[in-house]
Amino acid sequence: QVQLVQSGGGPVHAGGSLTLSCAASGRTLSGYDMFWYRQVPGKDYEFVARIRWSSGETYYADSVKGRFVISKDNARKTMYLQMNSLKPEDTAVYYCGADLIGSTMARDWGQGTQVTVSS
User: Fold this and answer.
1) pLDDT of 9 strictly over 90
2) Distance between CA 40 and CA 90 in Å, rounded?
3) Whose CA is closest to 92, among 101, 100, 81?
4) Which candidate, 10, 57, 67, 93, has a CA 20 to 30 Å from the CA of 17?
């Protein structure tokens, strides 16, 4: 079980940047994938980015590739989402999560943070 606490959301103008943080506690992240999803009203959760903690391998949704960067700090057990060139379409509640590779257990989720991008 991993507990996740998010920070870093807020309002920004289009073209601006924000960095979200997701701090983990409870156990080692070895063997975990960590990831970001987002949700807007009336729509399903949308995958944003993923990082394999052990290897650092990353994967991005096409909608954010080239603009967003997912990264990690092993010592702080914290994952980051650097969001650049933000668009109004990026407005959503952003959630971080953790998934134990090969496990059927439910994923662990952060509390979510609002990102609002104005025109």
Assistant:
1) yes
2) 9
3) 81
4) 57
Q: How far apart are CA 38 and CA 32, in angstroms?
A: 20
Residue 26 has a pLDDT of 84
Q: How many degrees, rounded to 5, is the angle at CA 113 between CA 109 and CA 117?
A: 140
Q: How far is it, in rounded angstroms, from Cα 34 to Cα 100?
A: 9
CA distance 32 to 46: 20
Cα distances (angstroms) measured from residue 79 to each of 8, 42, 87: 12, 27, 22
**Dihedral of CA 34/39/43/48: which sign?**
negative
